[in-house]
Structure formats: structure tokens, C-alpha cells
Amino acid sequence: MRLPWPHSLLWRSFLLIVLLLGASFVMWFQIYREYAQEPRTRQIAQLVVSVINLSRSALLAADSNQRLELLRELEAREGMAILPAETDDPLLPFTHGQQMAIVQEQVRQRLGEHTRFTGNLHGESGFFVSFRLDDRVPDDEYWLRLPAERVERLLPTHWLAWSAIAVIGSLLGAWLLVVGINRPLRALQEAAQILGRGEHPPPLDTRGPLELATLATTFNQMSQDLQRIESDRALILAGVSHDLRTPLARLRLGLELSGAQAEDLAAMSCDIEEMDRIINQFLDFARDQQAESPLSQDLSSLLAELLQACRLRGVKIQADIQPEIVLPLRPQSIRRATSNLIDNATRYAGNESPLDISLRREGREVVLEVADRGPGIPPAEVERLKRPFTRLEAARSNAGGSGLGLAIVERVARLHGGHLALLPRPGGGLRASLHLPAD
């Protein structure tokens, strides 16, 4: 199984630093064992052997009447004790494992295989090691007791304490370093999301490290350039669309006074209406959607009013609307988006079969869906058709339009923090769903 690996830069960087610190600590401990702990272990073993040899020599050299006094003096001055040993003395192991095992092995190599060790003898704790005054006399055996702290403190505790403090300080510094890098990146991410919704993000803070400051400055410049380009494009579209209204009105008036045949008048009137509708789409696309402030609005009532107006124009609609769905909305923008979806479905699917329009809550989203029985859209073309001035001529060749309808709906959806989904409808057709956040 693959080990879990965090997805965020913050936790990846912090985890990497933790792993590096952990590897450094392991290497440091190995160096300590190689150059400090093992030499200290050998020194302790040599100390034990030297004490035993000196004690044996002192006992052998001393007069038999003075041995007792010598033992008392050793215990009083050095904290050592020499006791008679028995073959059935219980042997209790020491609490320290590997280090004490090395000490015992080295002492046994120098004093002989008969050497015994115990950590407690007759209820008294300490480091007990046996020795013989004369190797030729096995029964002449004694216990030498040394204070346990002289032998068992193989790893100084203050070294561990300072190591723990160093590791904790390093982790804290690593956390502050990673957070300092992640904060401007998170601000950049939020600004990019705002820009992706068609809004204008506030300028990023350009203070900090050179690389992050350069990135923030570049993003601010890009955002300003996009705002200027968007403003220029909106101004051009609005100007062209406005200038076209006057000759279009004269053309409509001249057509009514021309006295042409009814069929020709109907065809030319239809063309003029199509041109007028395209101009309206240009104006809608050029309009600054953010100029309209969001209001708490009953989307159910708004949609019901819009559908009633569509029915008066002769559009066949089957509606399934959940009541009292109140959201913070820009009402005019939602009306334009819904009208575009209905016009798009009517234009491409015709008016033979009714449109199925629904409004419902799905978890934390509100879904406004317009479903038709037209030719539909191939899944590979969905994202392309959300861009301005794009059309799917192969699938819907008999329909006109400017190619701005779905682009306007997509922009309105992003402005409200939602998205537009274009999915195939079971049995043929298209399901255009406007997803808005429910909160």
C-alpha cells in the first residue's frame, strides 16, 4: 500500500523538514554511539576490572587480621562493598539492556567466564560482580558491589533534554517558515479564484521575500491589464451595439411603410428581431455585472414571473419549482441568464415539445435546470461553447445567434459563486443546469 502524502504545499514542506530533522537526529545518535557511547562503555568495563584487580591485590597483600578494617574503609571512602559469594545466590538482570550487556561481556572476557553479575543481592541494589581471590580455588569467591550510578549512566540525561529542545525549536522554526511562505500563496489563490469568477480582486501585498513579492507584483499587473482589456471590450461592444440601434429602428420603420407582401414582411421582420436580439446580447455581455448589488431574493418567485412572460410569448413550458428558495442574488443578472437558457433551448429544440424547467435544492446547492429535446451538445464541445462567440454549427446548423448566450450564463454563474453544467438528457436533448451555492 502507498503511504499517504499530503496534497497542500504547507504540509508537504513541513513533513519534508520533519523527515530531514528526524534523519539528522538519527545520524547524530549514531555518531554519538560510535564516538562517545561505545568508548564510555569500554571505560566503564576497564574501571570495573581495575577496581576488582586492585581490591584483590589489596586483600591478598593485607594481613588476615586487617582485612575487615580494609573492607570497612573501602565502603566508607569509595562506596564499595566486598561480600562473600555463594553458588546459589539469585541473579537479577539489569534494567539497561544493550549497554550493560556490552559492559558485562568485556568484564567477563578479562576476569574469566566464571564471572557473574546481578543488580540486587539479598534485597540490596547496586552493581554486583563476582571475582575470585585465587582462580585455582573456586570456592574462594566474593561479590564486589559498586554504586549503580557509576555504571548505569551510560547516556547523560541532559544530552537528551538539550536534543529534545533543539528538535522542538527546529520544528517550530520550520513551521513558521512554511506558514510564512504559504500565507502569500493562499492570498494569491484566493485572488485567482475571485478573478476567475469575473470579479476584480484587491491588490496583493507586495512585501516579503523577493520571489513572492515579484509574483504578487506580476499578478497585480496582470489583474490590472485584464480589467483594462475587459473595460475596453465592454466599451467597444456597447458603443457598436448602441450605434446599430438607430439604423435598425429606421429599417423597421421603412419595412412597415414599404407595402411589401405579407410573407416578405414576416421574413424581414423576423430577421430584424434576430438582429435586435443579438444586439441585446452584445449589450448584456458588455454590461458590468458587478454594478448590480446582490439582494436577498426569492428565486422561486422570480423564476415563476419569468416563465409566465415566456408562456405569453407562446413558449411551451413544464415547470417544477420548489417554493421559497431565498438566496443572495443579482436579480437582473439571473433573469438574463435564465432567459438565455430558455431562448437557447427554444431556438435549437423548437417549440414542438415543451421545455422542462425545474428549480430545486441539492445538498448545499440550488439547481435551476432547463431541459430540451434538441440535438444536444457533444461532451467534448461543452467547455468550448461556454466561451464567447463560439457556436456548434454541426449540431445546430439552422440556428442563428451571436455565440454569447452560454458565455453570459457562465459569467453570471461564476459571479454568484456557482457554475454552468451542460449534460446530455436521457432520451435525447440537453440539460443546462445553473448551479448556485445555497448559502
UniProtKB/TrEMBL annotation:
Assigned EC number: 2.7.13.3
Transmembrane segments annotated in the record for this chain: 12-32, 159-179
Keywords of the record: ATP-binding, Cell inner membrane, Cell membrane, Kinase, Membrane, Nucleotide-binding, Phosphoprotein, Transferase, Transmembrane, Transmembrane helix, Two-component regulatory system
Domain Histidine kinase intervals: 239-439
Catalysed reactions, as listed in the record: ATP + protein L-histidine = ADP + protein N-phospho-L-histidine
Pfam families, per database record: HAMP, HATPase_c, HisKA, RisS_PPD
CDD domains, sorted: HAMP, HisKA
Membrane topology: Multi-pass membrane protein
Localisation: Cell inner membrane
HAMP domain segment(s): 179-231
Protein name per Swiss-Prot or TrEMBL: histidine kinase
